[in-house]
Amino acid sequence: MKVTAAHGNNLKYLSLVTLTLQNAILGLSMRYGRTRPGDLFLSSTAVVMAEVVKLITSLCLVYLEEGKHFGRLQAALHQTIVKQPLDTLKICVPSLLYIIQNNLLYVSASHLDAATYQVTYQLKILTTAVFAVLILHRRLLPTQWAALVFLVVGVASVQLAQTSGDAGTAATRQQSMPQGDGPEQNRLLGFSAALGACFLSGLAGIYFEKMLKGADISIWMRNIQLSLLSLPFGLLTCAINDGAQLAAHGFFYGYDAFVVYLVVLQAVGGLIVAVVVKYADNILKGFATSLAIIISCVASIYLFDFSLSLQFTVGAGLVIGSIFLYGYDPSAKGGSKVTTRSSSKSLAEAEERLLAEKV
User: Fold this and answer.
1) What does the pLDDT look like over 67-85, one tens digit per residue?
2) Which residue ranges run through the membrane (predicted)?
């Protein structure tokens, strides 16, 4: 029993470290990848390659699920994808939304510093909650509504801090590092892209959760469906947004070891988080997100000439507080079983399942 308890604690600590690093490193890496000197890779191609890596990884995981038997893997794919065309076509909706979302996240990372990007993207909690209420008719606790208000106020404070006209009190300054071939910094565009990504994240997440209900299909098989259907949308996005550059420079223009690392981090990182997150409760996930925001702020000071102000600190503090408040269960104090928490619990479970599909 002691060994089991110790093993459980080790898994919790592993979850905390994994969630924190995934949340922090991805934002920092995307920002660096879009602002470093040298040839700038096309973000639309990176999104496509991430789906390819995710598809290959998910195929390997299903292969293991099927007892390392290639024939059973083929049968499972045929049964799930070919024999259920309507179910497969329904996946087109979240596939398209996720492709657009991931492209918007690259736009946001190109125009917002890593710390502001990390804080702003927490608005996905708000959009997911709103769509859960509107589409799934869930009821949120009063503490959760209060947390959403704090979240919006915190993000607004961060954005106002960085757009302040007073350079001495602004939360961030224009990046002083060499921009290479990167786009000219446009904070409004970056913030708008982050808002769009949060909106699509919430909509796709709740839609996908609704599909998962009653379906006896593993999350890895769902990832295969998502990636297969995402690839045509991703290639279409490449052609529409970057057709001229693709014709002139090729699909892998600007790729190097760092871009390959970024693609793998996007694809495999989410899958790893989906595995370990089941060992993390709401408090631990709150700690992980909060630590990620702090790490992003500290790292940005040294890597991107980021400058903290009181207003930014207060806004980030409100966001961190809202994360803990949203996951707080007042009924847990008495230790009694209540059903009013089921809505927020299922919302959290949906979020866990969807970590494998999100960036």
Assistant:
1) 888 889 999 898 888 888 8
2) 40-64, 119-136, 143-161, 188-208, 228-252, 258-277, 284-304, 310-328
